[in-house]
Each structure stands twice: as structure tokens, then as C-alpha cells.
Design a protein that fits this description.
Length: 363
């Protein structure tokens, strides 16, 4: 496979740090440049993250001596150095949209972890196992931007990665409704327990904007391309409540689902569909793709956050406790690693898909 020079915009934050670690020994991607805010610009990466390294694995040696660029002021230089960039900046949404489009117009493809462009009509929001075909909208986006190489592609919200993959292969049975309660780790807020002592022995029943994302973003994933935009699906309807809980990593969801009258599959059929499910990420053998995307646990007390969040390098989804419900047809629980499958890892997998399909080419 071709080799690609990669930049990371917003490399000093928690998701940016995760991107840095995922570039270490990647078979296709070579970390070449890092950009962050003006506060970090001019420092080596090691200096920029001193006292701020938030992961339980060390900073890769290859990143330490890279001199950090200014994400805004040095955009042209950054775009010149790399074949594409990951973006994980902490800015206002309108500023992120402007920054990502600026890089795209500099002919630098952007694979974004941010939410700012998720509802831009011609920006694909992709989980490679679910809606890989949405990357075809990139040609329409390039026409709008007036670019040959540049574009923006995004991954979906981190909490969706636990329950949407589990619901996806069941839509063929006429899935009509889903009720979802998510229990989300503090790293989803870019925090550790040292930085957020209020979360020790605590649960907060509110995460700003999260419930709206949880209810609406799956409909874009399940939508279709129509002309120069992606049209969201009409259903299934989803209602969500989202809680911040005292876990470092791992988003769990309790899911209730209802099918059209007379259409519900058996428990055995659902488990078989989960076990058999493969998407383009597996068929194309992308480097970051889990061999088995959906894992079902028969034990009554699984999945558990600490035991199962790192399954298949944190890129698989764990499911358990499938059983009948008194008001819905069935209920189950599921779990994904929020900064791997849900954030940086999911974006790396999307970048691999874009490279494999030729939307990103080495210069």
C-alpha cells in the first residue's frame, strides 16, 4: 500500500494525543506535522504536552521532537507538508467550520473528529462498516469548494458507536423505534479524574448537545445521497438520555427497540445477524478494522467497561443481555471505546477507507 504523510491539527488535546499514538507503527501513515493553538506553536511536541499528557500509554518517541505549528497562521505550511490531516481542535463550531474549509481549499483533505461539519449537506459522516458509500458525495463537495484534492469528511458522535452498529443489521426487519440511555466516560469530555475530581463517585445526568446528536446523527448515517447532498433517513425514531459516569474510557448504552407489527426477528436470529455482520472495513481488510465488529457476550454481567472496552484494540463493539421487554420488543446493552472506535480510531479507519478508495492520494 502507498505511504501517506499525515498531519494532526489539534494534536495537544486528548483526542489529538490519541491520534498521535495511533500513528506510531501505522502501516500506511507517517506522522509528519502537528499543529495546535498559538500557545503551543514553536514548542516541540514534548514541551507542548508536558504536564498535559492524558493517556495511560507513553508519548511516541517519533512525535516528541516535532515542532508544533500554529493551526491557523501556519495552515499553508501545514498543508504543504502533508498528504492529509486529522482534525481534533477545541474551538467554537463556526471557527472549526472555517478552519476545516480553509485547509480543504488549500488542497489538504481533512478527516475530522469535530462535530462542526457533521450536518453540512455535502460532507460525508461515515462509520466505514455502515455507510462507506457516502464518501461518493466528496465529488460534489469538491465542486462547491473549487478543489481538486481538498475536502472534509467527518466521523459521527462518539456515543453512537456503541448502539448504532448493533441496530444497523436489524433495520431490515422493520425497526421502528429505539430508546437509548448512554453512560459516557469522562474522557469524552477530554478529562481525567485528576483534572475532574468532581466526577469521582458521581454521575451527571446531562451532557450538552449529546442527546440531540444521539437522536439525529444516526439518521444521516442511514440516509442516502440525492444530487449534491446527503438526505437523512426518516427512521427509525430514536429518543435518548445521556449521562456522564465515573469511568475513564468506554461509552455504554442501554437500548430498547421495537419493530413493525409481525416483523420482529427471534433472539436467535438477532444474535446470528450480529455474529455475521461485516462491512466494507472488514471486506477491504483496512489496517484498523476489527476482525469481528460486533461481539455478543452470553454472560449476564457483560459487557463491562473495564473488561471489554479494549476488545480488538478498542475498535470492536461489545453487546450483551439481549432479552424480551414488556413495553418494547427487546432490550440489550452495548459498549464501545469512546476515544478509539468513537473518536481517533474511528477517524483513522475512515482515513484508511478514503485512501483505499482513492479519495486521498499521496502528492
Amino acid at each position: 500500500m502507498k505511504q501517506y504523510k499525515v498531519g494532526i491539527i489539534g494534536g495537544t488535546g486528548m483526542v489529538g494525543q490519541r491520534f498521535i499514538t495511533l500513528m506510531e507503527n501505522h502501516p500506511w501513515f507517517q506522522l509528519t506535522a502537528i499543529a495546535a493553538s498559538s500557545r503551543s506553536a514553536g514548542k516541540t511536541y514534548e514541551e507542548a504536552v508536558e504536564g498535559r499528557w492524558a493517556l495511560d500509554i507513553p508519548c511516541p518517541e517519533e512525535a516528541k521532537k516535532i515542532v508544533v505549528l500554529d493551526a491557523e497562521a501556519d495552515a499553508a505550511k501545514m498543508a504543504e507538508l502533508v498528504d492529509f490531516c486529522f482534525c481534533a481542535v477545541d474551538m467554537k463550531k463556526e471557527e472549526i467550520r472555517a478552519l476545516e474549509e480553509k485547509y480543504a481549499k488549500l488542497e489538504c483533505p481533512i478527516v475530522s473528529n469535530n462535530s462542526a461539519n457533521r450536518w453540512t449537506d455535502d460532507v460525508p459522516m461515515v462509520v466505514p462498516e455502515i455507510n462507506a458509500d457516502h464518501i461518493e458525495i466528496i465529488e460534489a463537495q469538491r465542486k462547491r469548494l473549487g478543489t481538486k484534492r481538498g475536502f472534509v469528511a467527518v466521523k459521527s458522535n462518539c456515543s453512537l458507536q456503541s448502539y448504532v452498529p448493533a441496530l444497523h443489521p436489524l433495520r431490515k426487519y422493520g425497526l421502528e423505534q429505539a430508546l437509548v440511555c448512554t453512560y459516557q466516560a469522562i474522557s469524552g469530555a477530554g478529562k481525567t479524574f485528576q483534572r475532574w475530581p468532581e466526577m469521582v463517585d458521581n454521575c451527571i445526568p446531562y451532557i450538552g448537545g449529546e442527546e440531540e446528536k444521539s437522536e439525529q446523527e444516526p439518521l444521516k448515517l442511514w440516509g442516502h445521497i440525492e444530487g449534491d447532498k446527503i438526505v437523512k433517513a426518516e427512521g427509525p425514531s430514536i429518543t435518548a438520555q445521556c449521562f456522564r459516569v465515573a469511568c475513564q474510557d468506554g461509552h455504554m448504552a442501554a437500548v430498547f427497540m421495537k419493530f413493525k407489527d409481525g416483523c420482529k426477528p427471534s433472539i436467535e436470529q438477532i444474535k446470528a445477524d450480529w455474529a455475521a455482520f461485516r462491512g466494507p472495513a472488514q471486506e477491504l481488510e483496512l489496517p484498523s478494522a476489527p476482525k469481528q465488529f460486533l461481539h455478543y457476550f452470553e454472560e449476564e454481567n457483560r459487557p463491562q467497561t473495564r473488561l471489554d472496552r479494549n476488545l480488538e484494540h478498542g475498535m470492536a463493539v461489545s453487546i450483551g443481555r439481549l432479552r424480551p421487554d414488556t413495553q418494547y420488543d427487546y432490550k440489550f446493552v452495548c459498549l464501545s471505546h469512546n476515544t478509539l472506535r468513537g473518536a481517533a480510531g474511528g477517524a483513522v479507519l475512515l482515513a484508511e477507507l478514503l485512501c483505499k478508495k482513492g479519495y486521498i492520494q499521496p502528492k
